[in-house]
Amino acid sequence: MSHPASADPTSPRTRCAAPPSSLLVDRADVLADPTGYRILTGDRPTGPLHLGHYLGTLRERVQLQDAGVETFVVVADYQVITDRTDTRDVVANVREVVLDQLAAGLDPLRSSIFVHSEIAEIHQLMLPLLSATTLPELQRNPTVKAEAQDAGISAVSGLLLTYPVHQAADILAVGGTLVPAGDDQLPHVEQTRAVARRINERYGAGTLVPPQALLGTSPRLLGTDGRKMAKSRGNAIALRDDEDRTAMLLRAAVTDSERTITYDPVHRPQVAGLLELTAAMSGRTPQQVAEDVAGAGAARLKQMATEAVNETLRPLRRRRAELASDPRVVRDALDAGASRVQPVARATLDRVHAAMGLVHR
Ligand code: TRP
Predict the structure, then answer these.
(1) I want to staple 281 with a disulfide (CB 3.0 to 4.6 A). Which of 119, 206, 260, 312 is the partner?
(2) Residue 72 backbone dihedrals phi, psi, to 5 degrees
């Protein structure tokens, strides 16, 4: 059997089921032809991963890996400094994120998990990509605008402004053809496609392969206060939290004063968030959970949410504790990832240089 991560790195993948012109790819097409795609996705190591990550991307990554799609995961340490200056926790957070990924079922033998700053070729590739990007294009990106606003930043850094292109470099350097994405990440995948096409127009068809996006199936999870889940808001349940802490956080979740539980995302967003969480963690629909709870009220709903989260995460948390007790696990996984990614990124950079005629020996 050929190793999934050992495919010829010099030939970009061109096979894809949907017409290459479409941004979105159908899940069914991917599952019908898993070896026709290569995934590149990633996380910003700003803290341990939480339930939003798990339902939004992590669970799906593992499913796609297990379906046989070659998978690359960047732990994007350079993205931490897009909107903050403190780097003291980055190394520890990289470790947490990698433990979360491994505990969730990413297998370092099949999937390549790597640290952004350890692969120099990615960042060098960003320069030709930036040359094919305009300032208005960068300034238009709605996700960057929203993130700058969220972080309360008045003067956007060059790295924050250009991070969609940096992300394009992550994707294109490893020849990723499929990017699992929430809708907030779609502008970045568009940007990646645009810059790849422009490089191809300027320097030669087939130099880079424009990727496609795979939209996630889970609804965006709200935090325990009804706002978007984020560690910085203190409203997130981390995968590594224990069962008591999970219960405590969910008991403190904000609801409303109406006793009977109904699923009404517009008028009762916090209750709807708890219903969606419980549903997603127990394979039911929010309506079914609401009918089960009905007149028993918010306390019962929180209890059901706690049980669903704790039961679903129990094997993951157990495995995480085992992995965390071995001091070499994380570094070994990252070494394996780096040793597979580096030659692929090198080959891409060489191909771009060759297309541009930047060959000096
Ligand atoms: N921006 C992504 C996040 O916030 C992380 C990331 C970095 C990424 N590079 C990527 C995602 C490339 C998809 C593709 O989690």
Answers:
(1) 312
(2) -120, 135
* Tokens standing for residue 22: 């479409």
Q: How many CA atoms lie within 13 A of 357 on its CB side?
A: 3
Residue 154 has pLDDT above 90, yes or no: no
Task: Give me 248's structure tokens.
Answer: 């405590």
Q: Which amino acid is at 298?
A: A
Comparing CA positions, the residue from 215, 253, 161 lying closest to residue 18 is 215
Give pLDDT, residue 30: 96
Q: If you count them, how many residues does the chain have?
A: 361
| Crossing angle of helices 158-173 and 329-356, rounded to 10° | 90
Q: How far is the CA of 194 from the centre of ligand 1 (A)?
A: 17
pTM exceeds 0.90 for this model: yes
Which residue minimizes the CA distance to atom 2 of ligand 1?
43
Q: What is the mean pLDDT of residues 213-239?
A: 83
Q: Which residues line ligand 1 (CB under 6 A)?
A: 40-44, 74, 76, 79, 167, 170-171, 179
**Which of 74, 159, 189, 192 has the most ligand 1 atoms within 8 A of CB, as the residue to mutate?**
74
**361: Cβ contacts below 8 Å, ≥ 6 apart:** none
Assign residue 67 a region (left: φ > 0; alpha: ψ between -120 and 50; beta: otherwise). Answer: alpha
